[in-house]
Amino acid sequence: MTTTWPKDEPGVMALPSGRLVRGRGLRKPPPAGPDPGFALYLLGKEPAPVDWPSRWVRWPDFWLPSDPAAFAASLRELLDRAGSERVEVACGGGAGRTGTAMACLAVLDGVPADQAVGYARSHYSKRAVETPWQKRFVKRFRAGR
Fold this sequence. Notes:
145 residues; alpha/beta; Protein-Tyrosine Phosphatase, Chain A
């Protein structure tokens, strides 16, 4: 049985394949409802422990991931799990780092890299991807990484 997010839940982005990923900001209370089955946390310091499987990628606010290869591997795992689990991507505010990750997920799911920021802004949050270097990172992100 597939256990994914409802399409209309706040912060949930549908990818072209139909997979659903929730993005959120950790500085806000968690949304009501079930916990994720897997999460990717994008923070400058290690997050507090959670009761579900998760990955942490060191990513200081307003910057880029400290280890782009680990980030890409974590995104591939998250995308794979999104086919049958509730997955989420989260950072402090839920816009810059999370939006950048959502745009990169769109690239992994078949959106051309030069269109991925627009995809994330129209399907996730209009505030997705906050800095010029985050935009450049998405444009250079490749599915084969």
